[in-house]
Amino acid sequence: MPIFRCNACKGTYSDTLRDGTVYMHACPPLPPDERGIEPERENKRDETIGTARGNLTPGIRSEGAGVTPVSHKQLSEPAWITRLKKQIAKEEEEQ
Ligand SMILES: [Zn+2]
Predict the structure, then answer these.
(1) Share of the chain above pLDDT 90, in %
(2) What is the pTM of this model?
(3) Ligand 1 ion local residues (Cβ < 5 A)
């Protein structure tokens, strides 16, 4: 299974969980400050699906700083995100 490194939080992850479901990476918040508030990092990546835009397929919430492939250098991002972007581009063309 392809492994990616998040360029924002430097975490590594596989785009597929052991049970075969898709893993959507979202950067964890930074350690809490003196007020106990956990700030979000700059360039936070969030691969969870955003809100629908009319009848168009929604994309991921935030690209953030992007990802670097670790195991499969030919992939620029998880394959399911590439497929999702193609679907969105196709729908936008048909509008
Ligand atoms: Zn991250």
Answers:
(1) 89
(2) 0.89
(3) 6, 8-9, 11, 27, 45
